[in-house]
Write a structure and sequence with these properties.
- One of its GO terms (cellular component) is cytosol.
- The protein is of the alpha+beta class.
- It has a single domain, classed as Phosphatidylinositol 3-kinase Catalytic Subunit, Chain A, domain 1 (Ubiquitin-like (UB roll)).
- It has two helices and five strands.
- The protein has a five-stranded mixed β-sheet with strand order 2-1-5-3-4, with helices on one face.
- It is globular.
- It starts with a strand and ends in a 14-residue tail after the last helix.
């Protein structure tokens, strides 16, 4: 299957994975193609009325509802601190606010105020 991946900057690219691929397989494909570190990737599937954080690496993409031409948002965990410590862990609890906070390129107003 071929999925669309979008980074918060608006950069979009396509990734081809097998139909039985896991979240881990998709992260590895992104790492290979785009040179983003696997362990920093956060994948969020855009659905019609909501979003799903795909946080189980061993789950098949189809478990989350990913199919051909699905739209996936790519976020990043912060890099390790200067002393080589582990990546920080945090909880993403509201992806709807991410989707609702888009700014109109025409008016400059947020989507919430339109």
């Amino acid at each position: 299957m071929k999925v669309v991946v979008e980074i918060l900057t608006g950069t979009m690219f396509y990734i081809q994975v097998e139909n039985n691929a896991t979240v881990s397989d998709l992260k590895r494909a992104i790492e290979a193609q785009e040179k983003h570190r696997y362990d920093r990737l956060i994948l969020i599937l855009k659905l019609v009325l909501s979003c799903i954080i795909m946080n189980e690496d061993d789950y098949p993409l189809t478990t989350y509802g990913v199919g051909d031409s699905s739209h996936i948002y790519l976020f990043f965990f912060p890099p390790p601190d200067d002393d080589g410590g582990a990546l920080p862990h945090f909880l993403l609890n509201s992806t709807e606010s991410i989707m609702d906070s888009q700014v109109s390129p025409i008016t400059g107003a947020s989507a919430q105020s339109e």
